[in-house]
Amino acid sequence: QVQLVESGGGSVEPGGSLTLSCIISGVTSVIGWFRQAPGKAREGVATIHLSSMTTWYADPVKGRFTISRNNAGSTVFLRMNSLKPEDTGMYYCAASRRTMTASQALGPDRYDDWGQGTQVTVSS
Fold this sequence. Notes:
The structure is a single chain. It is built from no helices and 11 strands. The chain is an all-beta fold and 124 residues long. The strands form 2 sheets. Strands 2, 4, 5, 6, 9, 10 and 11 form a 7-stranded mixed beta sheet that branches. Strands 1-3-8-7 form a 4-stranded antiparallel beta sheet, with no helix packed on it. A hairpin with a 5-residue loop joins strand 7 (65-69) and strand 8. The termini are far apart.
């Protein structure tokens, strides 16, 4: 089982930036960032394959968010720029050892281990 700990959430005004961190304990292949707004389903935001560094992004965040990892592969970051009110939600990182296609990479059902989440609020 992989342990995941998120941090870096907070409250920002529209147009602001935040960087989320996900510390990974254990062996895994893919790390994904997901978010869930009140009353809405959990949705994929960005994922990264830790070895190949292949990344996938959801359309609403392309060009604004960047997923990356440190050299050791023990921490994954989500840099969020030009934040909008619709980016508000609880952000979770998740781990998977499954093989997945581009269309599967942002699906929560492909991930087995989840962190506790960190809240992001974008409001003026």
